[in-house]
Amino acid sequence: MASDKVVLAYVLSLLACLVAMMWQSEVDPRDFAASDEAKFRVSPRKMMETISTPDMIATWFSWIKNVKQIDRRLLTKGKRYIGQYTVGPLGPYRILLTVKEYERGRLLTVDADSWLRPRLQLQVTDLKDGGCFVHLGMTFNRTSSLFQYTVGWVGRVMTNNHFRHSLFMLRMMRTDENSSQEHPDDFHALDELNDLEGVEVSDEVKVDLSGKI
């Protein structure tokens, strides 16, 4: 029995040392980013305008709801939003979101003021054929390797699944073939984005994004 206690104490000591070393060890959070991407036959300008609305920002973060503008100025660096997230029975909490980077029709980066330090990046690339490539990225900006291999890992898995699901749902929302030809930048309503599951999609479709959750 005594030897078992000694072994247990030895193992616990090793684990404590390992945790301390990982906590002190720093990594680049960008190496642990969650991401996904998809191709759309929509102009980059129209796509960025659509995926960067307050409602769509809430959709990409997934756990943040009811995102509203704090000011009425145009989308630019420094613009702020306020959102809500719920922690079980503790109720809703408010969270501040700030635009860190913005290039019209190309790039939007938003930081959320929380312990996880999440940074959302929306990037749209012009394909020169009337379409665009949408890249979604989420980085948890904490440099501790212990965080990135524990809490950060869970966050990345959840975010990757959410990005994949959301982009698939966007790509499956086809417009009518005729109206698509007449209005290549038109979008259908997307009122139930988070309620759709298990859909197989083609390589390239035209979609309508309403930004509603």
How would you sum up this structure, described in words?
The protein is of the alpha+beta class and about 210 residues long. The protein has a domain at about 30-55 and about 105-195. Helices cover about 35% and strands about 25% of the residues. It is built from six helices and seven strands. Strands 1-7-6-5-4-3-2 form a seven-stranded antiparallel sheet, with helices on one face. Strand 4 and strand 5 form a beta hairpin. The termini are far apart.
Q: Briefly, what is this?
A:
This protein has 213 residues and is an alpha+beta fold. It is 33% helix and 26% strand.
- Helical content, roughly? 25-40%
SSE class: alpha+beta
* Rg for CA atoms: 21 Å
Task: Characterize the largest beta sheet: strand count, sense, and whether it forms a barrel.
Answer: 7 strands, antiparallel
The residue ranges in which pLDDT falls below 50 over 5 or more consecutive positions are 174-213
| pLDDT averaged residue by residue | 76
Estimate what percentage of residues fall within beta strands.
25-35%
Number of E strands: 7
Order of helices and strands: HEHHEEEEEEHHH
Q: Compute the separation of the termini in Å.
A: 58 Å
- Tally of alpha and pi helices: 6
Shape: globular
> Widest sheet: strand order?
1-7-6-5-4-3-2
